[in-house]
Amino acid sequence: MYWDKEIETMSRDQLEELQLKRLKETLKQASKAPFYKSLGLEDYEVRTLDDIEKLPFTTKEDLRESYPYGMVSVDRKDLVRLHSSSGTTGTPTVVFHTIKDIDAWSELVARCLYMVGVRKGDVFQNMIGYGLFTGGLGLHYGAERVGCLTIPSGPGNTKRQLKFLKDFDVNFVHVIPSYALYLADTAESMGIEPSRDLPHLRTALIGAEPHSEETRKKIENFFSIDAYNSYGLSEMNGPGVAFECPEKNGMHIWEDAYLVEIVNPHTLSHVKPGETGELVLTTLSREGMPIIRYRTKDLTSIIDSTCACGRTHRRITRISGRSDDMLIVKGVNIFPVQVEAVLLGTPGVRRNYQIVLESKGHNDHMIVKVELDPGMFVGDIRGLEKLKKSLTRDLRDELLITPEIELCEPGSLPVSEGKAVRVIDKREE
Ligand code: AMP
Ligand code: ZN
Description:
Blueprint: H1 5-8, H2 12-30, H3 34-38, H4 60-65, E1 79-84, E2 94-98, H5 99-115, E3 123-126, H6 134-146, E4 149-151, H7 158-167, E5 172-175, H8 177-189, H9 194-197, E6 203-207, H10 213-223, E7 226-233, E8 238-244, E9 251-253, E10 258-263, E11 277-283, E12 294-300, E13 302-303, E14 315-316, E15 321-322, E16 327-329, E17 332-334, H11 336-344, E18 349-360, E19 363-372, H12 382-399, E20 404-408, E21 423-425
Parallel strand pairs: 3-4, 3-5, 5-6, 6-7, 18-21, 19-20
Antiparallel strand pairs: 1-2, 7-8, 8-9, 9-14, 10-11, 11-12, 12-15, 13-14, 16-17, 18-19
The structure holds adenosine monophosphate (AMP) and zinc ion.
């Protein structure tokens, strides 16, 4: 039932003792990185876990400013892997791992998989992007560690995905929830009846983007399987940070590897137990690039009560939103300023624009409406076609997804009196 019973069911006292020991080690290790050296991290004294509040926060901007190697706390020869967060082609946030880090990460993922019934000999199809994104390789290593036959199918090529599921008697999959729904539609249109044609499929691990309980139920019902919520972010390795157990009531966050805080995003002080706030995480077992008090910007709350599964690591509730304006479209992280930067750099385009997000089938669809200078509408219409094409290309290059462009007459988009409403999210849920 447990991958690592001793750690997973450790008493709270023991767990906190372990956390304190690891926090002290982490501070020592992090102090070697140029970024933390410049903050004078080694001068902070931590005697109890509560002293975490004295330490400085780390943000995505800090990571960007420390690009490329400013957060690394080992000799560069000891690094074996680099990952990056999804989206943005500007200065990315990169995370480095040593062999020991990859090993610890794989252990955490294996722990999650075992928790939801994955066993040696199972066949696993990983329908999530490989490459810089952590969901591919992260899950891959964990599944191999459990002893699963792992198929690195990546996303897309839906008919082949379905063929593999059937032909290789796949037992579990890792999939972005919106893609799982699309997969269901495709299966239906191909006349595939999961309970008849995919009898071996038992489990889906769904994560990387916000989704509702209804989405989970749809996936479970269509495929006749269990679907478990998986939360992670590249800055904290990726998948394997928090994961649902069979109780399906909140995600256990592995507290031997992460120190958890929930803060009010405005005051940055701790919220009351059980209240919603921004999740702040400190790595406790990372060597190559420890991160102290990372502001994830993800909103959640802690479930403090004991879980029927016997694990003592606390749970967090489903992510309810973000404290910044980051959008997740087709699983890719996008900030409205990225769109703005492209638009403002294009001649003939005015300042006023709007991003509309819709669901097309189960897919996210992004429309960028943009006002043009009056002169643009005079004369040859081919100029407009050309502009539309070049904007589509430039936005795709910047965002890594392809939006639809709508060119609008000056003054036709609403102007708000207060803060501009740039994003209209009409997606379901
Ligand atoms: P990345 O670093 O590219 O993996 O993106 C991580 C971000 O994806 C997180 O900070 C969350 O905003 C989002 N995310 C990941 N997993 C989940 C999940 N299970 N539910 C909601 N949002 C998620
Ligand atoms: Zn549990």
